[in-house]
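It would be a great kindness if you could assist me with a short task in structural biology. A protein sequence and the structure tokens that stand for its backbone fold form the material at issue. I should value your view on which stretches of the chain appear to form regular backbone elements. The record follows directly beneath this note.
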Amino acid sequence: MTLEDTIDIYCAAWSERNPSYRHDLLVRSVTDSVRYMDPETDVTGIAALVDHISGVLARNVGAKIIRTSGIDTHHGSARFAWQMVKADGTALPEGLDVVWIDEETGKLRTVLGFFGALRRE
């Protein structure tokens, strides 16, 4: 599986309403001990990430996450942009994830999420 496949499966997990299927998608794309951090949370492990995504989706019924950029990589890390599109078609500001990749499995071991565009000084 390519890194692009892994990241697209990971993004699909953020759109999946069924927690069991979301868990399966995460098993395919992240390590068992994955750490996910964004400005609002810091969770470790697939079960905790499944639960966190459940909360996000409950607050945004019918929304989906789509990858909106290519994937830049170096030294075992990558970055990509994504966007949440609500059920009515409106899109929230684009976000950015920086991920660290497990060398043995090719899965994501750490995900650091940012919301919105970069601030300009």
